[in-house]
Amino acid sequence: MAGSSSTTKSASLNRSKIRPRPRSKFEFFKEGYKKYTNLDFGKSILIDPENTWVVATFLFICEVVINAAIILYRPYTEIDWVAYMEEVGGFLNGTLDYEELKGGTGPLVYPAGFVYVFSVLFLATGKGTNLFLAQWIFGLLYLALIYQVFRLYTRSKKVPPYALLFLTFTSYRVHSIFVLRLFNDPIAILFTYIAINAFMDGRWTLGSLMYSLAVSIKMNVLLYAPALLTIYLTQLNVFDAVVQLAVCGVLQCVLALPFLLVNPWSYISRSFDLGRVFFYEWTVNWKFLSEEIFLDRRFHLFLLLFHIGLLLVFVPSWIRYLRSYFRLEPFAKSLEGKVPLQIRNQLFLLPLFVSNFIGVACSRSLHYQFYIWYYHTLPFLLWSTKYSIKIKLCIFGIIELCWNVFPATPQSSFGLVLCHILILAGLWHYSRPQKDWRKLEFKNR
Questions:
Q1: Burial of 410 (0-12, 13-18, 19+ CB in 10 A)
Q2: DSSP per-residue letters across 101-161
Q3: Angle at 333 between CA 322 and CA 386, to 5 degrees
Q4: Alpha-carbon distance 170 to 349, whole Å?
Q5: What is the model's pLDDT at position 330?
Q6: What's 20's DSSP letter?
Q7: Per-residue pLDDT tens for 233-290?
Q8: Is the CB of residue 348 less than 8 Å from the CB of residue 231?
Q9: Taking 60 as the threshold, does the pLDDT of residue 445 lie above it?
Q10: CB-CB contact of 284 with 415 (8 Å)
Q11: Closest by alpha carbon to 342, among 437, 428, 230, 424?
C-alpha cells in the first residue's frame, strides 16, 4: 500500500511538470478569427464608447478619400473666394484703412486674423488664381479639424461610436463648405477646436491664444465666450483668470495694431459689427417669417434678450458641472481614474457646446456656411439629452435635411428652428440638478 501511494505521488508530480502543448499558428489565428468576426464584437465596436478611437481612425481614413474625391470630381463654386483675395490684396499693397479694403461682395467685415491667414493663402495660391491648390489646402485643413473633433469624442466617450458615422457620411454640405466654397468659417472653427483640446490638456495659455486667434478670423467664435469665462472663473484663481483674459485681449490688439494706428474706428466698426443687416433671401432659419418681421429691429431685440435669458438659465448648471470637474481632478490623475476622467471631459465640453448652440439657435440669420459653426457638436449635444435613440437620430437627420434644402423654404426653416428648440429643451431637462455627479451618464448608448 505504501509503495502504491508512492507511485501515485510520483506520477502526479511528473504530470505537473508536463508543459501544456503550445498552440499552433493555425489555432492562434482560428481563435482570433472567432473573437473578432462574431456579431458581439462588431456591436461592441459600434456601441461601446471605449472603442471610439477604432471608429474614429477608420473614419479619418475615409475622410481622406472623401475629400480627395470631392476635390477631383465635384465642380468648384465661386462665392466669396475672389472677394477674399481682393480684400487681402489691398492689404498686401499697403492699404491699412478698413474703409478702403473692399472686395466684389462689399467691404471687408472680418477681423485682422482673417487678413493675415488669407494673405498667406493669397501668396501660396498665386494671388488666389490657383484654385485647385487652394482646394487641397482646405482639404488638409478639414482633416486637421476632424482630427481635433475625433480627439474630443475619443476623450469624452459620451457618444456611441456609430454616431460618428453620420458626421462623416451624411455631411456633404459641410465638406462643400471647406473644399468647394473655401469660406473663412471653417478655419475659425478649426482654431476653436484646437483651443478646446488645449484647455482640456491643461495648456491654458495656448488655449487662450488659439481661441483669440479664432475670434480674430471670424467673431462668431465669441458665442463660446460665456462658457469660457465661466471656465476661467471656476477652474483658475482670480489672478490666473485675469491673465488668461489678458492673453485673449492682448493678441487681439497685437493683430489689429497696424489697422488701429491708421483708422481705429473703421477697424472696430467693420470687423466687429454686431448690427449688420442680413439679406432675407439667404437666411436658412427664418424663411417661415415674412421679410418685414425678419428685418424688424424689435425681432432682433427679442432674439438678443432670448439669447441672454437662455444663458442665464444654463449658467447655474455650467457652474455645477465645472465645480465637479475641478473636484474630480485628483481621481482623474489616479490609476483608477479612467471613468472619472471621461466624465470629467464631458463636464468640461458640455458648457462650451451648449453656449455656442444657444448663440446659433438665437442667431438673427444663419447662412449655409454657418452650418460648420455647430455641426460637429450635434452628436454630443443630442447624446446629452434624455431622448430615445430614434428621436436623437431623427433630429440629426432633419437638421441635415434642412441645411441641404437650397434655397431655404418656409418648411425647411421651420423644421430647423423646431429641431433647435427640441435640443434646447432636452439640454435643459438634462441640466436640472442631480443629487450626485455619478448620476451623469457614464456611457449613454
A1: exposed
A2: -EETTEE--S-HHHHHHHHHHHHHTTTTT-HHHHHHHHHHHHHHHHHHHHHHHHHH--S-T
A3: 45
A4: 24
A5: 65
A6: P
A7: 999 999 999 999 999 999 999 999 999 999 999 999 888 877 777 888 899 999 999 9
A8: yes
A9: no
A10: no
A11: 437
Would you tell me how many other CB atoms lie within 10 Å of the CB of residue 445? 14
Separation of alpha carbons 364 and 300, rounded Å: 6
Burial of 357 (0-12, 13-18, 19+ CB in 10 A): buried
User: Computed from CA positions of residues 398, 400, 403, 406, in that sequence, does the dihedral angle turn out positive or negative?
Assistant: negative
What residues contact residue 164 under an 8 Å CB cut-off, 6+ apart? Answer: 52, 55, 56, 59, 150, 153, 379
- Residue at 175: amino acid letter: H
The one-character DSSP state at 201 is T
Record the cell numbers describing residue 250, joined without a space.
Answer: 492682448
Asked if residues 413 and 402 have their Cβ atoms less than 8 Å apart, the reply is: yes
Least confident window among 33-42, 67-76, 163-172, 239-248: 33-42
Q: Residue 389 has which C-alpha cell? A: 435613440
- The amino acid present at 354, given as its one-letter code, is V
Separation in Å, CA 444 to CA 163, 237, 343, 384, 385: 12, 33, 11, 8, 10
Least confident of 49-58, 162-171, 429-438: 429-438
Cα–Cα distance measured from residue 61 to residue 59, given in angstroms and rounded to the nearest whole number: 5
Q: Which of 8-22, 163-177, 303-317, 340-354 has the lowest mean pLDDT?
A: 8-22
H helix or E strand, kind and range, residue 85? helix 81-92
Residue 346 binned pLDDT confidence (cut-offs 50, 70, 90): confident
Q: What is the pLDDT of residues 298-335, one digit of tens each?
A: 999 999 999 999 999 999 999 998 888 777 766 655 54
DSSP per-residue string spanning 228-293: HHHHHHHHS-HHHHHHHHHHHHHHHHHHHHHHHHH-HHHHHHHHT-TTPPPPGGG-SS-TTS-HHH
Cell, residue 72? 477631383
Rounded (10°) CA dihedral 62, 65, 71, 73: -110
Please, are residues 204 and 293 in contact by the beta-carbon 8 Å criterion? no
The residue ranking higher by pLDDT, 264 or 30, is 264
Give the position of cell 458626421: 167
The pTM of the full predicted model, rounded to 2 decimals, is 0.88
